[in-house]
Amino acid sequence: MSTRYAFLLSLCCLLSAEVRADNWPGWRGPAGDGTSTEKNLPVRWSTTENVRWKVPLQGAGVSAPVVWGDRLYLTNSDGRHNDRLHLLCYRVVDGRLLWHTRFFGSALPEGLFAPGGMAVPTPTTDGKRVFALFGTSELVCVDLDGRPVWVRSLAQEYGAFRNRWGMSSSPLLLGEKLIVQVDHWGGSYLLAVEAATGANRWKTPRDVGINWTSPFAVHVKGRTQLIAVGSYAIKGYDPETGAELWTVGGMNMQCIISPVTSGDRLLAISGDPFQAVAIRLDGRTGDLTKSNIIWKAKSGTAYVPSPVCVGRHFYFVEDNGWGNCLDVETGKRVWRERMGGNHRASLVAGDGKVYFTGEGGVVTVVKAAREFEVLAKNELGEDIVASPAIADGRLFLRGAKHLFCIGEK
Amino acid sequence: MLRREYPLCLLIALWLGTLTRADEVDQLLRDVRSVSKEGAGSPAARAAWEKLVARGPAVLPRVLDALDTPDTVAANWLRTAFDRIVDRELNAGGKGLDADALLAFAKDPKRRGRARRLALDVVERLRPGTSERLLAGWLDDPEFRYDAIEQRLARLDRDKTMPRGRAIAAYRQAFAATRDVDQGRQIAARLKTLGVEVSVAEHMGFLGDWYVVGPFDAHGMKGFATVYPPEKKVDLKETFDGKDGKKLQWKHNRVVNTPAIRFPNFVDLHQALGAAEDAVAYAFTSFRAEAPREVEFRGAADDNFTVWVNGERVFGFEEYRNGVRLDRHRFRARLRAGINTVLVKVCQAPVTPTNKEPNWEFVLRITDTSGKGLVFATALPEGK
To answer: For position A35, which CATH number holds?
Structure first.
């Protein structure tokens, strides 16, 4: 078993003893890195081919779908101010709407990314409850029937999210803790709450401005660490206490992209000045900028879409549609190829394929390999900004107007 | 004797029973509303929530009444109960829902807007067309004003046969009612095609007649805290030592509104004073008020934002590189009868590799509490 799969397995076990490989329980999937261990994933589709079902969507939202067992969860918002919030549950097999729970939004964040409204953060689930954060600061937990378990308004407790493009950080479920990263002009913080009750476990101030990154969990020397990227630095935290463990400088002033790992390496991008960076995770603490950077790469740069790592290859896409593959060991470019169109959706990968989802709705399926090989280019006829989900041998795509389930027969 | 009093006893018993049930509902509502920060009180709230939902549509008016609160956490608990009951009842045909009670709530302008919308949504499902009928008369409604005007504009767009005079009157009424800048601009454009000019800037109370001066040196991003001469006294004839040895003097800057301008009377200091970095500029205006009154200032600037009214500092906000959003900041001040002055201070950040041409701009308007612009006669001297 490779180091990578050992890591994936251990992280999955950490998240929940019940989690199954074919679930996609939150932002960037079961390991939080955009990869799935699913097999027989779809290669080709079109508006008339391999669309198992599609359902119309209302309102705004670019949160990714999440899937657990036979249920898929999604958020959106509507209303003139996007302050009417929705958490929806669909049946995976046929897209039937099972329930729809609505909330009021308490405070708007000074601005928004229009297609996403207040529903940019992706919800998360442990198969027993569903957790969602909205741009209005509502942090909610409902049971599998959509009934409230606990409800919070972070704006009422700590002030409105002050962010000119709205909140996009997705909460991370880590065992019985829900981790929320709020990087904004109103005093940033990393928050851990009890998944069962909503009560704070800890709250750590962050000396950063606006960012749109999501917290990420890694396993370092037998211990879990939390990673938060933003405002010139990547920082590691102790998930038990919220204490800052280490920092590596050099990231952009405002960061969006989620990092990934490969073995003991953390791979991150944030646009200029580091286009891509590999950091060794070895348990050291303090300022690791000089000691733990393995390589910095200057092969194009991405600002919005998050990367994936498959085997010894690190894939990312520049916002203007250039796909990149770097060697994880050296940071050297393996290939850089045009995917077409602009890209905002993050990459996902599984079954030896990497899915590059263009904003115009074209998904380029590339073989996860050293040699660049396009397996297919697929179009659904509507814009796609949300990142895909992989579960149950299918791909779930949130378009501007529809939610699609893609699966080959 | 007993037989004769039996009906009375029964009535009393029934009344007491109702009272008890009413008290129970009160307690359930209290339990739900007791939720507080960090999810405290959630288990009790959930237990009460289940009982409320089980009581069905009879409790809806009281749930609606209880969720008319500024506490969004409590409101959300109660709205999920409200929705549960409504959804279940609608699936059963909706006959148990009291549309009249919901409609009365929706019509009450003293109720919180989000609660009124919730009630109206249900009425609309029970009696389609209700919203359209109500919106036709809600041009000045505090919650539905925007929707009512949108509906009015859509109707006017559809009606190609309306006489010009009637159309102008209808658009003028919509223009007078709107409190939304984009909506105001749309109406102004339509009126223009009918040969009528209206000023969005005036209607929304944007200040566009200014004297400006700068750049003052703010090396090291010290501009927000540093007191420059205009903060001590404004004399429009005074000259100053500015950044990089420049001699500065006040310049008259009356904003010219073009269709391309981002906001009405948007003041572009970069254009007015030239390129600068790590600097400070001031803008000054003066106007005459007929009588003393409380007003609301709404504005934003890039970077930072400080405002003095009649020499008193009424607002200060330090934040670099976060852009101008309409009405981002609101603050109140009292105007006096006669001449009033407004001084604005706007900083400019240093240039960085990722921000080579930072914006330097602000926008400010004076309104009543509904957002309707207030217009005052200028008291500024003409000047260069």
So the answer is: 2.130.10.10
